[in-house]
Design goal:
single chain; mainly alpha; elongated; 5% strand; 2 strands; two-stranded antiparallel ribbon
Length: 164
C-alpha cells in the first residue's frame, strides 16, 4: 500500500471525525486528543521517517556525485594530456593529417582569437548592460510604502520538523 494511499485513508478518517463532531474544529486540544485516540500518530511518524530517509538519500547521492565529478575531472585531464601527446607526435612526425580506422587526425591553424587586454580602453559600445531586479532594494522601498509593480502574496505555511 503506497504512502499516498495511506495518507488518503487517514485524511478521510479525519474528515469523517470532523463531520460527525463539528466541535472538534474549534478546539485544537480536543482535536489533538481525539486524533491521538483514533491512533493516527503512526502516519505522522511514518512520514517523518520517510522524510529522514529521503534526506539521507540526498546526502548519499551528493557524496556519490562528488566522487563521480572527481572521477570525471580525472578523465578530462587524461583526455587533455592524450590530445597534447597526440599533437606533439603529429608535429614531430611532420604530419598535418593522419587517417586511421579509429578516426582521422588533423592539425590546422585556427583564425586569430580576439583578446581583451585592457577593459578601461574599450569604447562604451563594447559593454553590455543587463537590467536585473534587486529584491533587496524592493524590500527596502516597500518599508516606506507600496512599490508600483509589486504586491504581497498571502504568505505560505511552513512545515517544521524537529528531530533532535
Amino acid at each position: 500500500m503506497s504512502i499516498k494511499f495511506q495518507v488518503g485513508q487517514v485524511k478521510a478518517l479525519i474528515e469523517g471525525l470532523l463531520e460527525h463532531f463539528p466541535e472538534l474544529r474549534d478546539d485544537e486540544q480536543l482535536r489533538a486528543d481525539t486524533f491521538e485516540g483514533a491512533d493516527i500518530d503512526w502516519i505522522f511518524s511514518k512520514l517523518i521517517s520517510d522524510i529522514r530517509e529521503a534526506e539521507s538519500m540526498q546526502e548519499a547521492i551528493d557524496l556519490r556525485q562528488d566522487d563521480l565529478n572527481a572521477r570525471c575531472a580525472r578523465y578530462e585531464r587524461k583526455e587533455k594530456l592524450l590530445r597534447v601527446l597526440l599533437e606533439e607526435l603529429m608535429e614531430v612526425a611532420g604530419l598535418t593529417k593522419k587517417v586511421l580506422p579509429e578516426g582521422t587526425i588533423s592539425i590546422s591553424q585556427r583564425a586569430p582569437a580576439l583578446i581583451v587586454i585592457d577593459e578601461k580602453l574599450l569604447p562604451e559600445e563594447a559593454f553590455a548592460t543587463k537590467k536585473t531586479v534587486s529584491m533587496q532594494k524592493i524590500r527596502e522601498l516597500a518599508k516606506t510604502g507600496v512599490v508600483p509593480g509589486t504586491m504581497l502574496d498571502n504568505g505560505k505555511t511552513v512545515l517544521t520538523i524537529k528531530t533532535q
